[in-house]
């Protein structure tokens, strides 16, 4: 195999209580990439459609992730990467993660899979470091592994994949403003009170237990964030109203998707997710703010090869 075309899914990181450790993979939103072997050694980005991103390998998240991988495996050929972006940069649904994870996944396939999907997370994290200044894994892990992922530790890497409850759906609305992850991280405090930490780790445990036992009510009760959301939500137009509207329309829970500005809601069943999408859309219509909306089942597979 000399060429591969792949679908690189969008992801929702944090999931309210799990800043930098929890994430899920979406099915209906994502980029595509074509990666081919070339006789010239090294990595070249040969095409980017749909976004204004750097073509230089060392300045592109896909390029940097791929270079990190090639440091660990000997090849006497190189790779060309074409990126077809649908996920907007600064949207909060893992745009840089889709490119970073896609590059290493595609190259790994062309090399005959010397690395497991879990091992690829470490390389993809280098792309995240370039994008936000911080090598967080809570978008690249669900992009590569699918389902829900818990990043118990990044050093050493310890990632647990959790299969999604079968009826769980996500609704994600993206108000069309760009919020850079680095900016959304700069508003955070470096210390938290013990009281807040207790509430937060109670909720993380509750969410994980809810996912394993398919207890939708417990999942909903655990989707709270009293550490990050109060600091970041002020950067997102209409956040409080959108969240309340999602809850009023049957969402199990709702919060900031990744570092924002997208807002997510989880619900039981597609009908509920669509009802929430309609209600969220109406809020931004009333505010005259352009938006994109996605309703998606949880993607249990992660990145996949497109035939
Ligand atoms: N955990 C990261 C953050 C995710 O919230 O900054 C960025 O998508």
TrEMBL record:
The broad enzyme category this protein falls into is: transferase
Q: Which residues form a coiled coil?
A: none
Give the matching InterPro entries. GHMP_kinase_C_dom, GHMP_kinase_C_sf, GHMP_kinase_N_dom, Homoserine_kinase, Ribosomal_Su5_D2-typ_SF, Ribsml_uS5_D2-typ_fold_subgr
Q: Please state every residue range assigned to the domain named GHMP kinase N-terminal.
A: 65-147
Task: State the compartments where it is located.
Answer: Cytoplasm
UniProt EC number: 2.7.1.39
Question: Per UniProt, which keywords does this protein have?
Answer: Amino-acid biosynthesis, ATP-binding, Cytoplasm, Kinase, Nucleotide-binding, Threonine biosynthesis, Transferase
GHMP kinase C-terminal domain residues: 208-285
The record's GO CC annotations read:
cytoplasm
The catalytic activity, as recorded, is:
L-homoserine + ATP = O-phospho-L-homoserine + ADP + H(+)
Q: In which pathway does it act?
A: Amino-acid biosynthesis; L-threonine biosynthesis; L-threonine from L-aspartate: step 4/5
What coarse category fits the chief subcellular location reported for this protein? cytoplasm
An example Gene Ontology molecular-function term: ATP binding
- Gene Ontology terms describing biological process: threonine biosynthetic process
Q: What does this protein do?
A: Catalyzes the ATP-dependent phosphorylation of L-homoserine to L-homoserine phosphate.
Q: Which family does it belong to?
A: Belongs to the GHMP kinase family. Homoserine kinase subfamily.
Please report the name of this protein according to its UniProt entry: Homoserine kinase
Source organism: Flavobacterium segetis
In the UniProt record, the gene name given for this protein reads thrB
